[in-house]
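About this split. The held-out portion is used to measure sequence recovery: a designer receives only the structure tokens and must propose an amino acid at every position. Recovery is the fraction of positions where the proposal matches the reference. Here is one held-out target exactly as it appears in the evaluation file.
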């Protein structure tokens, strides 16, 4: 049998290193260690999922494994040094990070999607690369194999790696996320703030200056109990239930416990925390473990809330007209609906495809839904962060329309008519007393205002540090805004100016190299490598799935949509100079040997990757496009 050709891993090149106490590293400095490169972008929810998947590996293999996060930005804001420094703090990235703002190392490793993982062996050879999330099992098997092989050969060096941890954070708040004004007796007027970086909730007096209570131990974890024992993991939005409903269910507030993939209930009088939705495991799209429970909900979960896997719930909102809580499920780009009275939950709006598409509940597309608020008319305002969009949701039907925003790769700091205006990764919105809408335009560091009457966007305030939520203080005269200025670790009062600013710093697009293709027929092929010790789960038919769409939609004249299999013939229209292909690939595998039966009670895994591929067209361009979905 011919020996497999070994490929040297490309050198690591970037602007600077974080977590090394100022020392620059080369791959030769890491000889003897297994190196895992994580190509990530801090705006990307899938990348944040991978950060959490890597934590157990960091602990288990601390003496042989060096993890390096290669930060490869999507948004312009992510290119700034201060923003990356804050993101490493915010998400508790406890490993080395290479700042790669110009995507030099990204391109050297031929990464095409966020996240991408690459494994380098102790001798400096590239041994694996994989896209997407859900690779913990495959990585564990591969690392065990490399440890055994290189320990036997004498090329593995055990001991501490080069990571130097930063000092522990100090201060009352650490990356606060969302703010809620309480109305229940005994707490009326007080502010409830999700102190995401401290994994807890803080109740303040109405002025937001005095801490009245802290709920949560302050340690990352998952535990129900009293205020000092309960644990959260980067909690996000909170919403208060009406007094009568709270008395019935035994808790006053629903919390989006984001990294635990759960909803938690909090009794404000006792501080007791209970789990009201979620199992603590992440809902992997297409895994089949969240089965539909009602006719007409094909592919959509509807059933007991504590029996369903959720995916990074980022915000929650009680809707009086329905008596239910809407959930911005950022991790799978949807809106869910939770009924506290019955303990049931269902997927409400969105298909789990990532993008911007206005339609009814079963056809709409969202992209990392991150903020929910109620308008006076009863509509729900949605901050759809990855499309840099403000959207409006009908809480009765789930239909969605876009107010500002054009797509996954379009952003900027541009005021004016909605069709031309641009936001940059907004996380919150709130209606103002005059009916206009204030937007926490997070990556622009600004509070923007959209006027539904004129259809124009303007700017109320700027030079804020990653504003992530807005509370309208309409009991003040004149009305003011209270902003969770997340990266400054504080709550900030902002006046509403009589005359808004007009900012015109331009529209931008994600600057990734375009893939050159020919027009006409395109043969799309996604390869999938099953991890060692696993086999494709073909017990119920083809375990693979491919979803294809484009921006603009007219770019694909045939072959769009979803179907089983990992290959597709697509027809691309003439007359386009460029566009974006959106591809989602999934494959299901279970523990077991190839060719054999899947053992009873075998662990099963779903591998998925979403690609947004900028493309440009040339008369002599290729008519094939190959992508890789790898389990190891």
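Reference sequence for scoring:
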């Amino acid at each position: 049998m011919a020996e497999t050709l070994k490929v040297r891993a490309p050198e690591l090149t970037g602007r600077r290193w974080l977590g090394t106490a100022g020392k620059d590293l080369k791959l030769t400095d890491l000889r003897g260690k297994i190196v895992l490169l994580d190509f990530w972008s801090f705006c990307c929810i899938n990348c944040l999922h991978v950060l959490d998947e890597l934590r157990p590996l960091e602990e288990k293999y601390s003496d042989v494994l060096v993890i390096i996060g290669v930060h490869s930005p999507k948004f312009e804001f992510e290119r700034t040094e201060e923003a990356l420094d804050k993101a490493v703090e915010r998400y508790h990235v406890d490993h080395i990070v290479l700042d790669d703002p110009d995507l030099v190392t990204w391109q050297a490793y031929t990464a095409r999607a966020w996240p991408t993982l690459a494994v380098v062996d102790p001798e400096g050879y590239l041994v694996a690369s994989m896209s997407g999330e859900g690779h913990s099992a495959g990585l564990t098997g591969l690392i065990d194999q490399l440890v055994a092989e290189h320990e036997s050969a004498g090329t593995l060096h055990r001991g501490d790696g080069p990571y130097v941890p930063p000092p522990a954070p100090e201060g009352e708040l650490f990356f606060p996320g969302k703010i809620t004004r309480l109305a229940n007796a005994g707490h009326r007027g007080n502010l409830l703030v999700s102190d995401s970086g401290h994994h807890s909730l803080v109740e303040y007096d109405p002025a937001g200056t005095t801490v009245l209570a802290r709920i949560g131990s302050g340690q990352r974890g998952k535990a129900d109990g009293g205020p000092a024992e309960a644990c959260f993991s980067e909690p996000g939005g909170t919403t208060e239930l009406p007094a009568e409903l709270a008395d019935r269910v035994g808790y006053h507030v629903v919390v989006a416990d984001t990294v635990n993939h759960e909803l938690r209930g909090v009794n404000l009088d006792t501080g007791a925390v209970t789990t009201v939705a979620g199992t603590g495991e992440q809902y992997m799209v297409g895994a089949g473990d969240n089965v539909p429970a009602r006719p007409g909900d094909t592919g959509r979960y509807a059933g007991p809330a504590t029996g369903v896997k959720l995916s990074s719930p980022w915000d929650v909102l009680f809707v009086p007209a329905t008596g239910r809580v809407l959930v911005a499920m950022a991790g799978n780009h949807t809106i869910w609906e939770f009924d506290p009275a019955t303990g049931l939950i269902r997927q409400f709006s969105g298909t789990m495809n990532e993008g911007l598409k206005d339609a009814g509940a079963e056809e709409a597309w969202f992209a990392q839904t991150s903020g929910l608020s109620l308008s006076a008319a009863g509509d729900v305002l949605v901050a759809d962060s990855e499309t840099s969009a403000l959207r409006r949701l009908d809480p009765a039907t789930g239909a969605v329309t876009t107010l500002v925003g054009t797509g996954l790769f379009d952003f900027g700091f541009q005021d004016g008519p909605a069709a031309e205006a641009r936001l940059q990764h907004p996380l919150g919105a709130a209606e103002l007393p005059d009916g206009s809408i204030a937007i926490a335009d997070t990556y622009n560091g600004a509070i923007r205002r959209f006027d539904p009457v004129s259809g124009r966007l303007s700017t109320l305030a700027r030079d804020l540090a990653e504003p992530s939520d807005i509370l309208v203080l309409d009991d003040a005269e004149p009305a003011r805004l209270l902003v969770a200025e997340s990266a400054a670790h504080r709550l900030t009062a902002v006046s509403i100016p009589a005359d808004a600013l007009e900012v015109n710093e331009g529209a931008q697009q994600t600057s990734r190299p375009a893939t050159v293709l020919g027009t006409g027929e395109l043969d799309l092929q996604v390869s999938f490598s099953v991890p060692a010790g696993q086999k494709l789960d073909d017990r119920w038919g083809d375990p693979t799935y491919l979803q294809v769409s484009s921006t603009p939609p007219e770019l694909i004249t045939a072959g769009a949509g979803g179907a089983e299999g990992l290959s597709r013939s697509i027809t691309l229209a003439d007359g386009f100079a460029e566009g974006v292909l959106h591809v989602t690939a999934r494959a299901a595998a279970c523990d077991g040997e190839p060719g054999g039966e899947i053992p009873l009670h075998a662990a099963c895994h779903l591998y998925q990757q979403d690609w947004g591929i900028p493309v440009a067209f040339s008369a002599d361009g290729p008519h094939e496009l190959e992508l890789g979905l790898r389990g190891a």
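Annotator remark: The first strand starts at residue 16 and ends at 18.
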